[in-house]
Structure formats: C-alpha cells, structure tokens
Design a protein that fits this description.
mainly alpha, 62% helix, globular, de novo design (two linked rop proteins), single chain
C-alpha cells in the first residue's frame, strides 16, 4: 500500500486479511457433513463473512469512532470464527494441523485489524491507542488445554445417566 489516501475498503490490509479468512473457511466447510449445513457450517461461514462486511461498512462511516465500532464487531466475528473452528475440531471435522492453519489466518487478521484500529484511534484523537501486547499463536504445545477443575465440574455430572444432577 502506498502513502496515497485509501479510496476503497478493498485497499485496507485489515479487509484483505479478513477476506483470506473468509475464502479459506468457504473452502474448508465444503467437505463437512451434510447434517451440519444449517448448523455449524452456516455459523462459521456467517462469522467469517461478517468480519469482512463490518470492516467494509465501518470504512463507509464518516467518523473514525463509528468505523472503530464496526472494527470491534469485525474482531468479534473473527474470534467467533475461531470458536466455530474449535467446535469443528472437537467434533472431528478437521484435524489439528488444519485447525492450526485456519486459526493462524484468523490471528493474523486480528493483528492487522488491531493495527488499523490503532490508526483510527490516533485519527480520532484517542489517547488510548494501544492494546496490551498479547502473544498470538504458537507451534509448540496443544491448541486446547484441559479446563481447570473448578470449571469442568465433577465426574459425577458426566456419569449421571438419568439427566439429573447429583446433590451437593
């Protein structure tokens, strides 16, 4: 991108990265089970499309603060897409390598979107232009770790056959 002014949302790196995610998700879900077409497939496709749409809509807003609001929605949609990918992994629709690949695309889109949002904050005169640095992605270790015991609950809940909960 040059130093000239941006005339279209399609020139934004944030939109371009979100578009990569959208296209990757579109290709990924083609082989998922037919019974998931109106469930998980629909949700993950919608969330990936929403990220691009929100960046585009925000670009069309007159005020930077309006644009920022839509960028926050786009960021939320990217995180939602990541959650849907974790469901697909848990259900066995994709393996760890494919999950990591698509997860990394989402993380890259989020990083670039954060940069665009910081730019908009500067233009709006917001003194809080930076988010704390967070380490995204890693090739080491599992993607998901076991939830802490206080969140998991007891094994008694897993063993209840009649659908009732044990008394505490």
């Amino acid at each position: 991108m040059s130093n000239t002014s941006i005339r279209s949302f399609t020139e934004l790196w944030a939109w371009q990265k979100a578009r990569v995610v959208r296209k990757a998700i579109s290709g990924l879900v083609r082989n998922w089970p037919a019974e998931e077409r109106f469930r998980l497939v629909d949700q993950v496709v919608r969330s990936s499309r929403s990220a691009c749409a929100n960046i585009a809509e925000g670009f069309g807003r007159y005020y930077e603060k309006d644009n920022l609001r839509f960028c926050r929605n786009a960021k939320g949609s990217l995180y939602e897409t990541m959650d849907h990918l974790s469901v697909a992994f848990d259900e066995g629709f994709l393996d760890a390598a494919v999950l990591k690949q698509h997860w990394a695309l989402c993380e890259e889109a989020i990083r670039v979107l954060n940069g665009y949002m910081n730019h908009l904050r500067r233009l709006a005169g917001d003194p809080n232009i930076s988010e704390p640095m967070a380490a995204y992605g890693s090739d080491e270790g599992p993607i998901f770790t076991e939830a802490p015991a206080e969140v998991r609950g007891s094994d008694e809940l897993d063993e209840a056959q009649d659908g009732s909960y044990p008394e505490h």
